[in-house]
UniProtKB/TrEMBL annotation:
Record-level GO cellular component terms: DNA recombinase complex; endodeoxyribonuclease complex; nucleus
Protein name from the UniProt record: RAG1
GO molecular function, one term: zinc ion binding
Species whose genome carries this gene: Amia calva (Bowfin)
Domain V(D)J recombination-activating protein 1 pre-RNase H: 40-112
V(D)J recombination-activating protein 1 DNA-binding domain location: 1-39
Domain of life: Eukaryota
GO aspect biological process, one term: B cell differentiation
Amino acid sequence: SQYHKMYRTVKATSGRQIFQPLHTLRNAEKALLPGYHPFEWQPALKNVSSNTEVGIIDGLSGWVASVDDQQINTISRRFRYDVALAAALKDFEEDIVEGMREQQLDDSLTESFTVIIKEACDGMMGDVSEKHGNGPALPEKAVRFSFTIMSISAHSEDGKNVKIFQELKPNSELCCKPLCLMFADESDHETLTAILGPVVAEREAMKESRLILSIGGMLRSFRFVFRGTGYDEKLVRDVEGLEASGSTYICTLCDSTRAEASQNMVLHTITRSHEENLERYEIWRTNPYSESADELRDRVKGVSAKPFLETLPSIDAVHCDIGRA
């Protein structure tokens, strides 16, 4: 049922009956993949190839294994993040032009477009293993990292920020663009780090640059703002390097223990930052004060792995529960 709507949409848009032999389906899928659109970044993205004609790549391609690293036993496929964003914006070309017209913006406006991106990542339930194949043994779980274009706005000549596109159903799977799929358990910190690390590096590079893309026959400049709000608590714990959800430290944003939270349901403040978690990881790794395991755990408050995906401090699942209580 999770994919039923998507299949219905494919049938409605392409007019094809989808219960067909696999090779026919694969060809139909190829026609639905994003096409190639020339674009560039100003300034050029750091540590990202300037070649823009890049299709689906191996999810492990950005990972350089050292001698000590275990061979990561997974299969992953993804788009390069900047290529995916350019293709997604081209999908909205008509909406952008129409939005500018409706807001009575000058058609020759080329600068100051801002795109808000919502990122989401979650483990997919269910058995995705290959039952009768003779391929490699893989985890029976999958993880999907995706993004949604939430809104596009432009700076008008009088300095106002005018919204020219807004996603009306931001939680629908029909506007959620898959960026990366991997066979992995979402609790597998090492595999997630290996695959999403390069994705995060590409996103960091894009924050410092502008995408130059032809929309409505003119080259226009887009700035991206990323909001990582589509991660559940389990995934946030993993990518922030925290202990799993059974930990004494129940919160991903402060140092509350279960006992403290049950005594104090009101006075909770957000105290964690990504930088602090990195410092705590170093303390956990090096144990500079030669403490016992329990003392060390108490000092780092549940940080046990190196965080790699920064998350903005906003209200999390546990704080919501505490607030409701």
